[in-house]
TrEMBL record:
Residues 54-87 form the SWIM-type domain. Signal peptide: none annotated. Pfam families: SWIM. This is SWIM zinc finger family protein. Residues 1-31, 113-140 are annotated as: Disordered. It comes from Kitasatospora camelliae.
């Protein structure tokens, strides 16, 4: 039987704060009837403004949601309210209930859709023409190489002219568009970021971008792990099905943290894991349309036995979730093992030596205290310290972190890089993990 989720985990699924607030009003038993929990699903009828209640169900494994309401947000306030009711009031949603027919039909349709999708992928793979695919790949590589060479020349011209007039040069967007035309979206993204780079950091960014463009023009001469890193940074991708058809790593993966970021195009969820046996870090990415939370959600602190397929590279971190063996289980009571601030920075140094474009590397800091210094927030264990990366979390979240610590050492998970440490999750003494930005 699936364990009940925490309120914090439920709220993390909401597409926005207004959905959290609306769901809170539906978290009591009053609007709900015929609720139940069993067979990997949660369901209930929610009284609305009309005469017919809304049918709401949640498949807990993925999770996935369905509701008969007209809301365009996903999950809607009714699904979130039902989850909050289930998380907070054990007596309100009885376990072991018989699954209603309408819920069984929905679950069956999801299973059928998944099987059909897998069959289509297999058929597509069987019909693929390897020779045609190779020709397409060669044509794209040639276009990207031409774009990379053009970018190198443009960067060199910028350095010769001097960087003082960089911010007045409005043609960088044109250069980014040319990189898109060259099918190099990774280069295009980094070019666009130049327009928002502080003057003092421009030369470093020019150098890294010039190095990346130059590396691609000689990618065939590089060792394969580094060549894979360069291709990924430039914008080449690998299909999930192709990754999962290759080697996978099976382990009991502890969820160290998650964070959502949103723009006008999509919502991106980052989920960080660490293998109990391998000690290997992994990053899962999930995406949702504007106003919709990504489908993949794993509670922080839980442990999931599963297979992961890592994307190729000189320092593999991003992974694709493959076969799961059960649902997420309650994790260890104690915080995860960690490093000192000095050791975390050294680990990042080792990683960046293999991938020069790496901005940060996941790390757990043990026994650190957040303190505010004249230079900004610091995380210290009394012997070494690392600064908190500016802008990584809101200022009020750092004050909440200090309140959780209350001057005592805590365990922190986050990303450690040249700009500092970006905290994601905190474990205080005897407490469950808390998202720093929540």
């Amino acid at each position: 039987m699936e364990e009940r989720w925490s309120t914090e985990h439920v709220l993390s699924l909401a597409p926005d704060q207004s959905s959290q607030k609306a769901a809170g009003k539906l978290s009591g038993p009053a609007p709900w009837s015929e609720t139940g929990w069993g067979g990997g699903a949660l369901w209930g009828l929610c009284k609305g403004s009309g005469s017919t209640p809304y049918r709401t169900a949640v498949e807990l494994g993925t999770p996935a949601y369905t509701c008969s309401c007209p809301s365009r947000k996903f999950p809607c306030k009714h699904a979130l309210g039902l989850l909050l009711l289930w998380a907070g009031a054990a007596e309100a949603v009885a376990a072991g209930s018989e699954v209603p027919e309408w819920v069984e039909e929905w679950l069956s349709s999801r299973q059928d859709a998944a099987e059909q999708k897998a069959a289509r992928q297999q058929a597509k793979a069987a019909e693929a023409d390897p020779a045609a695919a190779r020709r397409r790949a060669e044509r794209r590589s040639a276009r990207v190489a031409a774009g990379a060479q053009e970018l190198r020349l443009r960067l060199a011209d910028g350095v010769r002219r001097g960087l003082a007039d960089h911010t007045t040069d409005a043609s960088w967007e044109e250069v980014a568009a040319r990189m898109v035309d060259a099918q190099a979206p990774g280069l295009a993204g980094r070019v666009r970021e130049l327009g928002h780079t502080p003057q003092g950091d421009l030369l470093e960014e020019y150098a890294l971008l010039h190095l990346l463009a130059g590396a691609f023009t000689r990618v065939e001469e590089l060792p394969e792990p580094l060549a894979a890193t360069v291709r990924t940074r430039v914008g080449f991708t690998t299909d999930a099905s192709e990754l999962l058809a290759g080697p996978t790593v099976r382990d009991r993966w502890q969820v160290l943290g998650s964070r959502d970021t949103a723009d006008e195009r999509l919502t991106t969820r980052r989920l960080w894991l660490r293998g109990a046996k391998t000690g290997r870090p992994a990053l899962l990415l999930a995406f949702g349309r504007p106003g919709q939370a990504p489908e993949l959600a794993l509670p922080t602190g839980r442990v999931l036995e599963a297979e992961l397929a890592f994307h190729p590279g000189s320092r593999p971190l991003r992974a694709t979730l493959g076969t799961r063996y059960g649902t997420p289980e309650q994790g260890p009571a104690e915080p995860p093992a960690g490093l000192t601030p000095a050791e975390a920075m050294a680990a990042y140094g080792t990683a960046v030596a293999q991938d020069p474009w790496l901005e940060s590397w996941p790390a757990v800091l043990s026994e650190v205290v957040p303190v505010l210094s004249p230079e900004g927030w610091q995380l210290t264990d009394g012997h070494s310290a690392v600064r908190v990366r500016r802008g990584s979390v809101p200022e009020q979240a750092l004050w909440r972190l200090a309140a959780v610590s209350a001057g005592r050492p805590v365990t922190l998970f986050g990303e450690c890089g040249h700009a500092g440490f970006a905290p994601v999750t905190v474990w205080a003494e005897g407490a469950r993990p808390i998202g720093v930005a929540q």
